[in-house]
Amino acid sequence: MRHVSGAWRRTAAGAGLIGADGSPAPTIFAEMSALATATGALNLGQGFPDEDGPAEVLDAARAAIAGGRNQYPPGRGVPELLEAIAEHQRRFYGLELDPAREVLVTAGATEALAATLLALVDGPDDEVVVFEPHYDSYAACVALSGARLRTVPLRWPDFQPDLDELEAAVTDRTRIILVNDPHNPTGAVFSREALGRIVALADRHDAVIVTDEVYEHLVHRGPHVPIATLPGAAARTLTISSAGKTFRTTGWKIGWVSGPAELVDAVLAVKQFLTYVNGSPFQPAIAVGLRLPDAFFRGVSADMRRKSEILGEGLRAAGFDVSTPAGSYFTVADAAALGVSDAAEFCRALPERAGVVAIPLTAFATRERRDEYRTLVRFAACKRDEVLQDAATRLSALRS
Ligand SMILES: *Cc1c(COP(=O)(O)O)cnc(C)c1O
């Protein structure tokens, strides 16, 4: 008996959702985190912090549970969080949103991305333009939506898009241009020129801009410029963000999407049948977080910059060529200088050799383009300073 169609299997296998035997493909993050546990290596692979976030936010969640906020919240999100998100967009970026119609709370940025792609894509004639390397859920969700993926490469060492390649990728078939700024895995912050070109191309070809800005407060040298603030962009842009990275609450899965009411409604129509709602007591807690004073947000970005510098110095001392990130949790290093020709093999051996876990950049690239990234490795800097210093000491063993 065959319950799963052959066509779906081919699509899913092509997008890396399932392995050759049809079982769910283990992600490289799961594989590397398991290796970290088995070997006792420092895990600079998966991007989650090893410290708790602000006490005010944690206390607010405990108070919400004690106060009985434990049942289904409203479908769009609790009113104080919707208001806090709208307030945050005005306070930091001057963007005006109607909290009742232009904001939607989701189960993390991941659900926001999935629901947006499923809502706005019509089928195999639609294309979604994605910059690569890219966050792993992008290609998977594009495959689930049935659309075609078109990728624009970001290249070592500054990882800015080539504007001619971008222009060639966007056509009248483009339904969505999917931006991630600041960018995971490269740490790039897109130039004003690149953002301006994306808006112009979206306008020319009547595409929607979907922007994943989960690292909006992790820009090392601010301020962050949301693409929705560029002239003419807001009316065709859905902005996605999340509390996980800013407030070090990645396990809470509170995300949101904001933009024109008509687009947000389309996302809600899908989202209500994915999770319906989530994180009832965490939603008011994140509202508290979004309203923290400026000093908190300055601290988040200053901490990240310091951590990236500690990591970068350690990687350089160990003999890597290092790309200087402008934002995000991550730093990309080229292991070619250490005689490495295959970063995936290098990363599988690294826990034994040096007691550190990292992720090969090929994990974030489509098959056709993996060769361009074959010696590059992503290290996460979102760990305690002592851990990063320890990692630097351990990595120095690679020199000898
Ligand atoms: C971590 C991350 C996400 C996922 O965010 P959640 O809120 O945990 O779902 C989405 N996009 C990028 C680029 C990320 O790094």
Task: Give a structural overview.
- This protein has 400 residues and is of the alpha/beta class.
- It contains 14 helices and 13 strands.
- The protein has helices at 6-14, 28-39, 55-66, 79-93, 108-120, 136-145, 163-169, 192-205, 243-246, 261-271, 282-290, 294-317, 343-354, 385-395; strands at residues 42-43, 103-107, 127-132, 148-153, 174-180, 208-212, 237-242, 254-258, 321-322, 330-334, 356-357, 359-360, 376-380.
- The strands form three sheets. It has a seven-stranded mixed beta sheet, with helices on both faces. A four-stranded antiparallel beta sheet has the order 9-10-13-12.
- β3, α6 and β4 (148-153) form a beta-alpha-beta unit.
- α4 (79-93) runs parallel beside α11 (282-290) and α12 (294-317) runs parallel beside α14 (385-395).
- The longest helix is centred in the C-terminal third of the chain and has 24 residues, at 294-317.
- The relative contact order is 0.16.
- Its cofactor is pyridoxal 5'-phosphate.
- InterPro entries: Aminotransferase_I/II_large, Kynurenine-oxoglutarate_AT, PyrdxlP-dep_Trfase, PyrdxlP-dep_Trfase_major, PyrdxlP-dep_Trfase_small.
